[in-house]
Amino acid sequence: MASYKLNNLALIFASMLVGGIISVGGYAYYSATHGTAEMTPAPEKEARKVLFWYDPMYPNTRFDKPGKSPFMDMDLVAKYADEEAGDASTPGVRIDPVQTQNLGLKTDAVRRGSLNYAQTFPANVSFNEYQFVIVQARSAGFIDKVYPLTVGDKIKKGTPLIELTIPDWVEAQSEYLLLRETGGTATQVEGILERLRLAGMPEEDIRRLTATRKIQTRFTLKAPIDGVITAFDLRTGMNIAKDNVVAKIQGMDPVWVAAAVPESVAWLIKDASQFALTVPAWPNKPFTIRKWSILPSLDATTRTLQLRLLVDNPDEALKPGMNAYLKLNTESEPMLLIPSKALIDTGKEQRVITVDSDGRFVPKRVWVFHESQGVTAIRSGLSEGEKVVSSGLFLIDSEANISGALDRMRAHTPADTSAPATHSH
Question: Where is the CusB-like barrel-sandwich hybrid domain (predicted)?
Answer without folding.
Answer: 133-250
